Amino acid sequence: MSKFSILFLALILLATSCKKEEIKTKTDILCNRTWILEEYSKTSGGVITVYYKKGGSNNIYDYSKDTRNYIKDGTTTAISTPSGGLGYRGTWKFLSNETQMENQQTYPTLGSKRVVDITSPTENEFVYTEKNDEELYKSRYIPQQ
């Protein structure tokens, strides 16, 4: 075999053996893990109040055990530390080309539907914001290790 044939064969093998990277949707990223709250804040009148920051010493609330799980079937579960570790269940779905999310608590009581703006999820964070009159609430979640 000539050197050209060997080189050509090696290039073909290299090209066909490379694994293509799988493109993940926002649903795949969101539903593939348990999320823990890293930071929760409110902006009002240009003033930012940080209620909780993971590892912070001046937290107003303890959200250290808060978790969120989103399931592809449109259900969700959550644990809320300030509520005494109370577990919640609900439903979720993306809206507006996956730039917003609608959540509704269904257990232990039926809650109203809330729509929040989504600025991610990525592999490393999930951030949503919710506007209430002139106040903007921001929740930043990271994957549980």
Task: Give your account of this protein's structure.
With 145 residues, the chain is mostly beta strands. It has one domain: Lipocalin. The protein contains two helices and nine strands, in the order ααβββββββββ. It has an eight-stranded antiparallel β-barrel. β3 (67-70) and β4 form a beta hairpin. The longest helix has 15 residues, at 3-17. The protein is globular, with a radius of gyration of 22 Å.
Low-confidence stretches: none
CATH architecture: Beta Barrel
Q: From the alpha carbons, calculate the radius of gyration and give it in angstroms.
A: 22 Å
Please tell me what the overall shape is: globular
The termini sit apart by 52 Å
How much helix, percentage-wise, in residues?
10-25%
Name its key features.
single chain; 145 residues; mainly beta; Lipocalin; eight-stranded antiparallel beta barrel; 47% strand
Brief rundown of the structure:
With 145 residues, the chain is mainly beta. The chain is 14% helix and 47% strand.
Map the helices and strands.
Blueprint: H1 3-17, H2 26-31, E1 34-44, E2 47-53, E3 67-70, E4 75-80, E5 86-95, E6 100-107, E7 113-118, E8 126-132, E9 135-143
